[in-house]
Amino acid sequence: MEKKNEIDISQTPIEVQIISSADGASHFVGPFMRIHRKDKHHKEIHELMQDDIKKATKDRTRKITLPEVKKFIKPRYELFIEQA
To answer: What residue spans define the domains of the chain?
Structure first.
């Protein structure tokens, strides 16, 4: 998991994919996407919204590798992007 930005997670053992997909999916359930920015209080709202889009897209395209999880978060991702 420490090399998640350097490797293709879809090519890792299934256990790593499960953890990564669960972590990514958890960001679309509950308040995570709204509270993760508490350390970015100095940014303007449009910057925060762009950061949110980048984070959600990274989670969807890099962290979430399991097809079942991708299907589950798809409507949540689409709604999140629309709201941002």
So the answer is: 9-83
